[in-house]
């Protein structure tokens, strides 16, 4: 169940992670960031080298707001 706890840790620290790793993939094990970067494969490979199996990966969005242009027609 380490994976579930690591996802919960990511969720609980998401704002902090957004500041440190905006628009990046992260690999986490035992509530510690093992690797971070823009390319998933490199992050994954680095985490495998450090711990083998037993980590989770996630993508951290920047948190910058995005606005979609909409057109509403009311008749």
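-> sequence recovered:
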């Amino acid at each position: 169940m380490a994976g579930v706890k690591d996802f919960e840790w990511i969720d609980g620290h998401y704002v902090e992670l957004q500041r440190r790793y905006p628009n990046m993939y992260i690999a986490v094990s035992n509530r510690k960031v093992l690797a971070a970067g823009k390319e998933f494969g490199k992050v994954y490979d680095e985490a495998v080298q450090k711990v083998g199996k037993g980590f989770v990966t996630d993508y951290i969005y920047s948190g910058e707001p995005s606005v979609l242009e909409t057109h509403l027609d009311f008749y």
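The radius of gyration is 16 Å.
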